[in-house]
Records
---
Amino acid sequence: MTTRAPKGAVDVLPPESGRWRRLLRAFDSLAERYGYGLALTPVFEATELFSRGVGEETEIVSKQMYTFTDKAGRSLTLRPEATASVVRAYLQEGRSGVLKCAYSGPMFRYEQPQAGRRRQFHQVGVEYLGEPSPDADVEVVEVGYRLLQEAGIREVVVLLNSLGDPADRADYRTRLRSYLEERAEALSAESRRRLATNPLRVLDSKEDASVVAGAPATLDHLGAAAATHFAAVRCGLERRSIPYEIAPRLVRGLDYYNRTVFEYQASSYTAAQGALGGGGRYDPLAELLGGPPTPGVGLAMGVDRIVGAMPEVSGREDRGVFVVVADPERREEALDLVAALRTGGLAADSDLGDRSVKAQFRAAARRGVTVVAVVGAEWARGLVTVRDMATGEEEAVPIGEVAAWTQAR
Ligand code: AMP
């Protein structure tokens, strides 16, 4: 063995990748049903997009970026998240009004790898641009909640908070800083450092939980407009029967959030392991990137973590037909049958390696297929022997009926 995958990056191969495929498909279909078109943006961006958008003082920008200089001397960064890119694309194209889009792809952060924390990880997310209504916040929260439901993850609760409008947030920041300064001696060295640069980040410190527990709450300092917005979001979540808890110390790491912020927590995935996903409203972001004021709200779900928390599905995963070649003389016809089944919309496969019938059956069983179709002596009479792999039931059926026989299982 020579070269290995880089630290903090993983390979996902079959059969484990079956769960990834299920989850990515579920997201794709969910996003489409909720009216989010697909957004494809570059995996690398000008470094300043993140320093301006995400914020210089954030952990992501100050410590975790994969930044490099290209051959023409430009500073580029592998994207640590996708919201800034989607908003950049909206502004670059001169769009205005509502744009709803969904994305899916790898993100990169130079973190200390541990359970649930990788340097390359996959996110799926949606962005709802151009809409200030609290109902947009509710819809975005709902998309993530339904995705976790479809993934079979139980006991999901949405942790919900509001940071208020930028003026409320600035006011809160001052109050929080003076609260923390009074207790600076009790804080860890890391929190003392954050206190100077980005006091909201101290709220994420596990070591300083007791000081954090008594810190002022953002909700006590909301202006009237932000308070009304928050009440409407709560109402909307209740109407949609989405369970939520108010999390007064949830602030999230990025600078661009205002008003609603949220995360998903599941009983099978503890708080210490991190959230399965989260998001919030980011009305100030477009202006931070030099564009006109454009409200927005979005969400990002951590696919690596969700897949890790998904229960095993019972039963067969790879429904379809495996065609076994029992008579090597009929190999070409068997491949024609595979092709016809595939064209007809079924999952179909065969072994191309001239292996024994027994070995071919073993391969079929490993795949977990529904039906094995044996191309052998009966072919001359226009028949194929089909076997239901779950019940063992076997029958010789006309070649043209293999698909229907399989679909009936
Ligand atoms: P964030 O962009 O930090 O709000 O992250 C959104 C979601 O992405 C988190 O809730 C996690 O599920 C996932 N995530 C963030 N960072 C990582 C990481 N380093 N490794 C794996 N998943 C991550």
---
Amino acid sequence: MDIVLSGIRPTGNLHLGNYFGAVKNFVKMQHENNAFFFIADYHSLTTHPTPADLHGNVKQVLSEYLACGLDPEVATIYIQSDLPEIAELYLLLNMNAYLGELERTTSFKDKVRKQANNVNAGLLTYPVLMAADILIHKSKYVPVGKDQEQNLEMARKFAKRFNNMYSVDYFNEPIPFNFGNDLIKIPGLDGSGKMGKSEGNGLYLIDDEKTIKKKVMKAKTDAGPTQQNQEMPQEIINLFTIADIVSEKDTVDFFKTNYNNCSIRYGDFKKQLAEDINNFVSPIREKIIDIRSNEEYLSKVAKMGAEKARESAAKTVKEVREIIGFKSF
Ligand code: TRP
């Protein structure tokens, strides 16, 4: 079985875009591969969270992924900071990562612009830490979105560089994994093409019925069709895209027909859509709340994952130390 790995930043809650874009595919992947999923809490330190926020976020994100179906009995699910081996590999890889190439990455340049008063070394070496995450288990595939492709390219570079430097064929080059046709893009409710946290247009898995209704009723719509079979504006296509996922086919057909003969009432459509979204989300929401309140279970999952992950991480670090030339006295 191939080793597949993905890291999840512990910031914010999962929205429908995350769910259909990544999480659902992770859940599927865990059964077909030797899957490692971890919460990247070392990475989150670049923005200096408070200790309470840090721990709370890790637990929340862990609860949400478990509620979506990541199974600790199937995949290795762990918290990055439970593996000091990652920090060690990061240190070792840093010796072969160059200032120029790190400064040139788009995500670093982006961060320099966005948080000019906190350009710390952790931000600069973010791709090195990410390479350590990936190489520590000799991962073959890494499912990533477009925004992470450059980081993956760096991981490949560091793997190759290590092999060349020590004339070994030790690290394989991790391959970005694109879900292709399985990737469903969820649009925003504001007429934009993409649902996102920073866009502020997200429907979250933990949103309650009232919140969902409020957000959907406020969704952008136009003045309505005036001609038979008129082309839909983007914001209406977006609502139908979401309906296609959460509503019964008959319901979608009903409102489409009404759109085409100009009798659609957006208020009714939105009310139905809000109800269908809630029906979809509510079992997941209940599971999140249930798991989040079960500290004992969360702790068991984290311990089990750490134990499994450390086994493979310790082996890699031991071998890397030998290759580099560290010898014990
Ligand atoms: N940088 C990734 C993100 O922002 C999270 C991440 C950290 C990651 N380490 C990783 C993803 C290793 C894949 C593999 O989403």
